[in-house]
């Protein structure tokens, strides 16, 4: 039986800007069960990133409740929160956020450096395994500038996976990528979701990307406009297979 991994109740987030208050989130409530693949859509400024940052414990709501795996995050100390975030959540951003002049392998090892229980040898082994899982076994020693955008995003996904989180949060993770590379990343997300049971919350403003998820939450002006199950979820792997072959030139 699936259980609730996320539960948010009447979440609001205000930003005070001088004499003005921006109401970025105006009362949002929903649950996500373990193993769901949810996309969050909405136009620019509708509150997607604000919401994702709160879900990832990078930011706190002005008011409202957030339970992560049954734990009320409000009751946690800074250290406890950092620990929970490290163990449960992997982040993927639009701009990859990799360290330049640092190899793929070292970038993926990074989150494990904060974990004193993991030896250097185990760190290396887990980073190798994570890069293999995103099909970059032949790019360990490449630095970000020596990788394509799609490869950099796969390194970022490997880094998000290396702590074996239960949930992946992605903010416009395909935003800088062409269609083919986007489908490639979505095929990887679908595999992580179906084969490994990872819960995924994926922010996008592209409907054709949302079609790969099983549920879409549409935001508008900081509120939920629609929350729908996707009955006709598309397979990114099949889409890729049916794309015309890339011309050699
Ligand atoms: N740190 C901040 N300080 C002040 N206002 C903010 C801050 N972060 C976000 N906002 C405001 O909150 C609203 C929601 O912003 P948010 O970044 O969540 O939008 P978004 O849906 O992610 O948009 P986009 O698709 O452009 O990324 C916007 O009006 C934005 O200007
Ligand atoms: Mg955003």
For the largest sheet, list the strands in their spatial order.
Answer: 6-7-8-3-9-10
The CATH class is: Alpha Beta
Shape designation: globular
CATH architecture: 3-Layer(aba) Sandwich
Instruction: Determine the structural class based on helices, strands and strand pairing.
Output: alpha/beta
Strand portion: 25-35%
- Ions, cofactors and other bound molecules: adenosine-5'-triphosphate, magnesium ion
Binned, the helix content reads 25-40%
As for the CATH topology, it is Rossmann fold
Q: What's the total number of strands?
A: 10
Secondary-structure element sequence?
A: EEEHEEHEHHHEHEHEEH
Mean pLDDT: 94
- Which homologous superfamily in CATH is the superfamily? P-loop containing nucleotide triphosphate hydrolases
Distance between the termini: 52 Å
**Rg over alpha carbons:** 18 Å
> What profile does the largest beta sheet have?
6 strands, mixed
